[in-house]
User: Which sequence fits this backbone?
């Protein structure tokens, strides 16, 4: 067998100079909130590493995540993700179909057993034996059960595989759950799991995780939801360039008023930035063009669990999730009725007490004296 | 067509000034002093700071334009300019759509990305050799 | 349960339950009071009850002369936390958005950093009055569980709000959920505890003056 190709070889073959790669590492470092000075060391380490084998499985999903990852064609800066990894199986991108595709997966898994990173997008339905999503006649959960034991680590790509996402949203007709839930329930083997949530997730977050794995040999530190802290450590609100306006109480009231034109805070228009942990405000989208808030729309909170069930995207965060008037109306009616009942009962009691009351007479006192 | 061709420009209205550039200038001063004393400067990642378009303009105005202006073409353009403050560089990495993906202030003799890496030099040597080969 | 789930519950069913208990409870107490009424006063009126009532409603809300000297801590602490509580509750931008969503009314907010300071001062005042209650033998003797419950119910929304604002203790989402829940607890406890004075203070102050006013006495 020949020497495994290093990332440096791959880059050289594709005509990517070290300057280009240094630039890539500089952008990665910037995203991972590492001091800019580490870029050079990172570039050095990575060029000597071998590419990470990746098997990518898609379940109940919309392909938006894959779209987000593969949107750019190489060799571009964002496209370099595909140089960091060797994507050994991805159904949608695979030329083969049918039995050949199934075989390709089995082969890829066998060849890289114990070493590959399993990327999963989409939620996994459990209701009715998982029949709501099947590939080649096998349920998602079956496929996952088979793949996970051979993986070195699992990356849940997108909010669906991280937290259940849209399939999981109320009333969750297919009983969809996340990869993490499956591990918690013991339905699949426990492996190191990284949730890269977002609907879709930011592609460079995945490059960042892979780069971290390749340079340091470890997985990045995770937050309480299993998300890499370097990208999900701050809320959108913490890093939002409109934040000073929030603090000064300057809010856009509609999408086309003076405040909106001046770039004031979108909190009143439903921005969920304060409760959303993600890197959009720094990593940005579409190759760094902007992010939703910069384009004048509030954050939807797409990287948080159950964001679909958090009420209207356009209702401000403090607003109740559902209208209260019906409940309040009923409460007033009940309160008035109950108050009347309690009050009348009190009146009745008072009257009874008054009736039972007999006046004290001299005779009473007299009799009391006699022992 | 790239996103650049879309005729939407972010206007830096004075009302969107956030006024956070003074601390950056102070940090640059500290780094520059360190470069002179120890030979080691440092860099500031501008994208990690919440700056509005107006702030960027204010920062550029405060630093001014210096003697060096270089363009690197590697996976999209990278613009390297020395500011009017010697030793303080602006390095802007763009993707091939022309959009800035990283924006740094580097305080150093010359930014790392301007230098030729040994690996690239080897590639160059190999190229030159083939060209010199009697053919 | 995740922070988001907790927040979703607090902003949804939790809020509904709390609001229903609050409205039903307050309605019962008011209607009961109103139905039981006062025993009729057959004496000839020597002055206007209403005038006296309105006057004391106002005058009894002003500092009592000499109170500052007699019990400076209770006096200052009491005023500071009552006023601070209401300023933070009514003039913090997100709260106004909540109230607007519930009532349809809105008004201008105060800057967040000002609310921050006022909130902190209110927290300090509440802690001070608690310490005083615990260390002063008479106050301690007079305190019942209900008093401590009422104190905690007032204190928690301020504390969790402060924590959430400064991203302390736990992540913002969870803290925000706890903040909303603590407010809901306060709503539920108002009709059940002496916190009912939020509303009845006006009634009793009015009566104090009205009774005297009818007798032609100014108080
Ligand atoms: S726009 Fe959203 S994220 Fe930005 S400051 Fe306002 S509320 Fe926070």
Assistant:
């Amino acid at each position: 067998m020949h020497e495994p190709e290093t990332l440096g070889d791959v880059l050289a073959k594709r005509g990517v100079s070290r300057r280009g790669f240094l630039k890539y590492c500089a952008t990665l470092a910037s995203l991972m909130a590492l001091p800019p000075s580490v870029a050079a060391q990172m570039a050095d380490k990575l060029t000597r590493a071998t590419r990470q084998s990746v098997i990518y499985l898609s379940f109940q999903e919309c392909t938006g995540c894959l779209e987000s990852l593969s949107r750019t064609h190489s060799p571009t800066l964002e496209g370099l993700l595909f140089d960091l990894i060797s994507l050994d199986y991805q159904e949608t991108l695979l030329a083969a179909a049918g039995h050949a595709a199934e075989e390709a997966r089995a082969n890829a898994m066998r060849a890289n057993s114990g070493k590959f990173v399993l990327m999963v997008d989409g939620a996994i339905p459990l209701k009715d034996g998982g029949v709501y999503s099947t590939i080649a006649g096998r349920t998602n959960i079956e496929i996952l059960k088979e793949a996970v034991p051979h993986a070195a680590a699992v990356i849940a790509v997108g909010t669906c595989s991280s937290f259940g996402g849209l399939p999981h949203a109320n009333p969750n007709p297919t009983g969809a759950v996340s990869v993490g839930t499956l591990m918690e329930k013991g339905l699949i083997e426990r492996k190191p799991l990284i949730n890269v949530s977002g609907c879709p997730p930011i592609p460079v977050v995945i490059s960042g995780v892979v780069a971290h794995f390749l340079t340091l040999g470890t997985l990045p530190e995770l937050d309480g939801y299993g998300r890499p802290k370097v990208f999900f450590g701050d809320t959108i609100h913490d890093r939002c360039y409109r934040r000073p306006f929030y603090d000064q109480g300057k809010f856009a009231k509609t999408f086309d008023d003076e405040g909106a034109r001046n770039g004031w805070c979108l909190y009143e228009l439903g921005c969920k930035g304060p409760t959303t942990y993600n890197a959009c405000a720094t990593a940005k989208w579409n190759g760094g063009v902007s992010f939703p808030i910069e384009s004048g729309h509030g954050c939807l909170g797409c990287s948080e669990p159950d964001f679909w069930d958090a009420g209207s995207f356009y209702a401000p965060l403090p607003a109740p999730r559902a209208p209260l008037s019906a409940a309040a109306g009923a409460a007033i009616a009940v309160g008035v009725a109950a108050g009347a009942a309690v009050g009348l009962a009190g009146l009745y009691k008072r009257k009874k007490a008054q009736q039972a009351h007999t006046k004290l007479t001299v005779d009473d006192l007299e009799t009391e004296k006699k022992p | 067509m790239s996103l650049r061709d879309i005729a939407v420009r972010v206007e830096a209205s004075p009302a969107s000034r956030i006024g956070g550039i003074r601390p950056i200038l102070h940090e640059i001063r500290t780094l520059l002093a360190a470069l002179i004393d120890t030979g080691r400067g440092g860099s500031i990642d501008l994208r990690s700071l919440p700056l509005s378009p107006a702030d960027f303009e204010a920062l550029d105005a405060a630093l001014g334009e210096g003697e060096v202006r270089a363009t690197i073409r590697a996976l999209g353009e990278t613009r390297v300019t020395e500011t009017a403050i010697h030793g303080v560089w602006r390095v802007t990495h763009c993707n091939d759509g022309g959009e800035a993906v990283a924006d740094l202030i580097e305080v150093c003799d010359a930014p790392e990305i301007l230098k030729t890496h040994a690996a690239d030099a080897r590639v160059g040597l190999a190229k030159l050799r083939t060209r010199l080969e009697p053919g | 349960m995740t922070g988001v789930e907790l927040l979703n519950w607090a902003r949804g069913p939790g809020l509904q339950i709390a609001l229903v208990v609050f409205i039903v409870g307050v309605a019962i107490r008011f209607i009961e009071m109103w139905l039981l009424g006062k025993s009729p006063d057959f004496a000839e009126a020597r002055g206007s009850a209403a005038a006296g009532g309105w006057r004391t409603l106002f005058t009894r809300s002003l500092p009592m002369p000499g109170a500052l000297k007699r019990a400076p801590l209770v006096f200052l602490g009491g005023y500071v936390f009552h006023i601070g509580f209401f300023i933070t509750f009514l003039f913090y931008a997100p709260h106004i958005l909540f109230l607007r969503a519930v009532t349809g009314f809105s008004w201008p907010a105060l800057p967040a950093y000002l609310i921050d300071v006022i909130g902190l001062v209110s927290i300090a005042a509440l802690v001070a009055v608690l310490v005083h209650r615990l260390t002063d033998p008479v106050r301690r003797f007079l305190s019942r569980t209900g008093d401590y419950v009422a104190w905690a119910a007032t204190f928690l929304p301020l504390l969790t709000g402060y924590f959430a604002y400064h991203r302390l203790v736990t992540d913002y989402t969870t803290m925000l959920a706890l903040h909303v829940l603590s407010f809901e607890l306060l709503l539920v406890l108002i009709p059940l505890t002496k916190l009912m004075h939020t509303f009845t203070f006006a009634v009793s102050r009015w009566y104090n003056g009205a009774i005297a006013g009818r007798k032609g006495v100014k108080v």
